[in-house]
Amino acid sequence: CERRVEANGKSRRVRPTIVFMTRQQVLDLYFMENRAKLIDLGAFLDRVDRASGDADFRLDAFKEALRELDILYRQAPNDVQVIYGRGTCLMKVGRLVEARDVFERGVQNGPRDVGLLQSLGDVDMALEDWAGAENAYSRAIEIRDRPILRYRRAHVYLEMNDVDRARADAERLLASHPENAEFRALAGKVAA
């Protein structure tokens, strides 16, 4: 199975090389790509477990897959990508306190990871821990100022009845994204 490759105006034949990767290399390469599928799988299994009726072979196969994910988490409990995937999956199935614990562990291991800080803020918002959410979003903004972080933090400030800081975030969002309908709605809510 050869193919021709051109370089510097010359053509030559090359044979493909088969490269075997370690389990860790495969995980590093494909985990982020497949993370959403894993999250959807976790949510699906939760719905199946709550439904009435008898299980069949398919449910057993899904549960086996989740057991493999748990093994991965035990093997790499400090890997930021594994932590993010596990925490997000727990959040999706409504296990918010466990998700918070996982994200907090992740932030300890990767304190400058904006994605983990945002996820920690999201789970704190879901748990109505406004101070925790504000802290997580603010730390993330210090690292990389993203509109979604300011938008969510402004909502947290509103829940905390801190209209001045909510207004500051809303004004900054509108200044940089005047066409965004959600940011305009937020500004209107702050002004009301």
Q: Can I get a quick summary?
A:
With 192 residues, the protein is mainly α. The chain has helices at residues 23-50, 57-75, 80-92, 96-109, 114-126, 130-143, 147-159, 163-176, 181-191; strands at residues 3-7, 10-14. The mean pLDDT is 81.
Give an overview of the whole structure.
The chain is mostly helical and 192 residues long. It is 72% helix and 5% strand. It has a two-stranded antiparallel ribbon with strand order 1-2. The N and C termini lie far apart (69 Å). The mean pLDDT is 81.
Features:
192 residues, mainly alpha, 9 helices, globular
Basic shape: globular
Strand order of the largest sheet: 1-2
The low-confidence parts are none
Q: What is the number of helical segments per DSSP (H or I, 4+ residues)?
A: 9
Structural class determined from secondary elements: mainly alpha
Helix content: over 70%
The description of the largest β-sheet is:
2 strands, antiparallel
Please state the CA-atom Rg, rounded to the nearest Å. Answer: 22 Å
**Mean pLDDT score:** 81
Q: What's the total count of β strands?
A: 2
Q: Report how far apart the termini are.
A: 69 Å
Write the layout of secondary structure elements.
Blueprint: E1 3-7, E2 10-14, H1 23-50, H2 57-75, H3 80-92, H4 96-109, H5 114-126, H6 130-143, H7 147-159, H8 163-176, H9 181-191
Antiparallel strand pairs: 1-2
Helix pairs in contact: 1-2, 1-3, 3-4, 3-5, 4-5, 5-6, 6-7, 7-8, 8-9
